[in-house]
Every structure is written in C-alpha cells, then in structure tokens.
Specification:
The chain has ten helices and seven strands. The chain has about 240 residues and is of the alpha/beta class. A seven-stranded mixed sheet has the order 3-2-1-4-5-7-6, with helices on both faces.
Length: about 240
C-alpha cells in the first residue's frame, strides 16, 4: 500500500458489520434519492455494499484502500454480470478520474468514511467534479465534537461533525443541500459515558448486535416520524449544483 493509501486508513469498526438493521435504516433514508450509477467510497468488507446491490443499480463501484480490500474482493468475487461491482483498492481521489471516465456516477456514498479524511474539503471538491450533473452525495458521519474521544482517535477519526460545519463545507464545494438530519438520539448518552467519561477504547460485536436487535427497531419509527434535536450521527444528502 503506497503513502497515498495510508492517508485514509479505512479500518473502521468491523464490529459494525453486525449492525444489519442499523445499515438498513441508513439506506432507508438514502433510498428515495439514490440514482442507478452508484459509487461507495470506503466500502470496507462490503456489508453496506450488499444492501446497495439489493437496490438493483445499473452499476456499483466500490473504493476501499485498506487491508479490508481482500475481504471485499472475496465477498464480491462470486458475482457475475451487471451485478458484479467494479473494485478499486485505492483512495477515491486517486481513482476519481478513472471512475468518471468509466461511467459518470449519479450517486456517491460515504458511510462512516468522511471523518477519516484529513482534507475533507478537497475530497468534497473531487466528489463534486466526479458526479454527473444533478448527481447526489450521500454522507453518514459521527456527529458532535463534544463526543470526540480517544476511541475516535484510535480508529482514525479526524473529527466529529456538526451540521453547520458540514453544510458550509458542502456549500463551498458547490453542493446544494437536499436533506440533513440527526440520527440515533439514544446513542448519545451511552457513547458519552463509555467513550468520554470511562475512556473505553473498544467496541465489541456483542454490544453492537444487542443495540441493533433491541434498540434500533424501537427508535427507527420514532426518528423517522419526528426528527431528533441531536444525534450520535449526522446524515446528509446534497446535490451537485
């Protein structure tokens, strides 16, 4: 892996692979706005990619620079024909021109990825240049800097986002805001206690599975009906102006 690839470590929470209901919830928010030529940046081991394939896109391109690429390759290697994604073992900026030449995407997705990128403003500019006219950017990020902890640092986060900060960066890159909402209000207090006050540096798959099984089904319909005033995460959809 070259120096450029190291810039985005990409080693996000593998425990989150078990958060099937959580990922389905994210996709539920994205889905009404998704196009058919999709790029997922930071695809990891492919857990969210599998859900994207269920939307039956015309094309799906997956970008993953980390060592998880081998597992992504294995997960996607058995697929044939139009359902077989294109794979890039690199950071997005290094392959954006190639992706644009292959088939200009109408949807580019960052789920738990943008916070790993030091120069996120440059990244947003590259995304804007790569998207087709009227194409959309889909972002899911950790929110609220007061929750930032050693755990965040250890897994390669440069920041947690506030709405104002992310909106301003999107506007500067030439995007028009389509949708913006806080996500996972009940997760704020446990995160604050465990990672800020208790200074934990681990996340177990068992805890993720329990939250996914019991908490997500309870809060999902409520947050879909009434946007929460704050959240552990932020979900934003923006359109190329």
């Amino acid at each position: 892996m070259n120096a450029d690839k190291v810039e985005y470590a990409g080693k996000d929470l593998e425990a989150m692979d078990f958060a099937v209901r959580y990922h389905n919830w994210i996709l539920e928010v994205f889905r009404p706005y998704l196009g058919k030529r999709i790029v997922e940046v930071g695809a990891g081991t492919g857990s969210f990619s599998e859900l994207l394939l269920e939307t039956q896109p015309e094309s799906l391109t997956l970008v993953e620079p980390s060592e998880m690429f081998e597992r992504l390759e294995l997960a996607m290697g058995s697929r044939n024909g139009v359902a077989r994604p294109r794979l890039h073992n690199n950071i997005f900026r290094n392959v954006a021109a190639e992706i644009k030449d292959e088939q200009r995407p109408d949807s580019i997705i960052y789920v738990n990825v943008l916070e790993h990128i030091d120069d996120d403003e440059l990244e947003l500019e590259v995304v804007h240049d790569t998207l087709a006219r009227g194409g959309r950017l889909f972002i899911f990020v950790p929110a609220n800097q007061f929750l930032f902890s050693n755990f965040d640092r250890n897994i390669g986060h440069y920041r947690r986002y506030g709405k104002k900060e992310l909106h301003q960066k999107l506007d500067a890159a030439g995007f028009r805001l389509v949708k913006s909402r806080w996500f996972d209000l009940p997760g704020v207090l446990p995160w604050l206690i465990k990672y800020r006050f208790m200074r934990s540096t681990t996340m177990g798959s068992g805890a993720v599975q329990a939250y996914d099984r019991y908490i997500v089904p309870a809060i999902r319909p409520i947050e879909n009906l009434i946007n929460p005033p704050i959240g552990k995460n932020l979900i934003v959809i923006a359109e190329k102006a």
